[in-house]
Amino acid sequence: xxxxxxxxxRHLVKKMSSAGFDFRQFHVAHDRCAxxxxxxxxxxxxxxxxxGASRVLDVGCGSGLIALMVAQRTGAHIVGVEVDAxxxxxxxxxxxxxxxxxxxxxxxxxxSDYRPDEQFDHIVANPxxxxxxxxxxxxxxxxxxxxxxxTFERLLGEVARLLVVGGRFHAIVPASAYDAFAFCAWxxxxxPYRRTDVVTRPGKPVRRVLVSFVEGQEKPIQRxxxxxxxxxxxxxxxxxxxxxxxxL
Length: 248
Description:
Blueprint lengths: L2 H11 L6 E3 L4 E3 L9 H9 L7 E5 L5 H9 L3 E6 L2 H12 L7 E5 L11 E6 L14 H4 L8 H11 E12 L3 H10 L2 E10 L8 E8 L6 E6 L9 H7 L5
Parallel strand pairs: 3-4, 3-6, 4-5, 6-7, 8-10
Antiparallel strand pairs: 1-2, 7-9, 8-9
Helix pairs in contact: 2-3, 6-7
């Protein structure tokens, strides 16, 4: 890890404790969650194209971070589904302590077993991934299974089942897994229309991809890049603008 990136990470976590993270309008406790508050979740919660959403599903909601960010950004009703019991309880506690407890429901369930009364017009997911350097070489289909219990195929199949016709799906994935992820989405008639490549600083390789899909209709892809930190290791202007409503 470069000195610049180490400085950037220190800057991001200076207000974080092992117990939780303070945002402008809410607090996220995460000491009982395997997936802690991190840059990936914040990026997706701030970036996802959820303007005008009415029903939003957060698959694998963990601490409830993304559900809370979506609640701050919209007037939607949000459901967070989480299979881990401790994380689901903590997410419910975070929601209860937030300004939007009446608009967010946390459901402890495997998404494959979840049967809501209505489908969703937007779904968000920050799937769990193992270390990227463990990915087998030349195995695009194997990449689609490189998750902690939720394969790309299964995730995207459930997204297709739970999404309304013409609905939108938003995710963040490692750049090395993007092609496999997009292929699995294509198999479910989910087509990318917006993509942002995330790099730590100018000139560095793409590490993450933020991507939005629309159900049933191929569209031209709007593509851009987000640089997270400047030469000093501080948040870039673009990152500050994206997260201005959330970070203290």
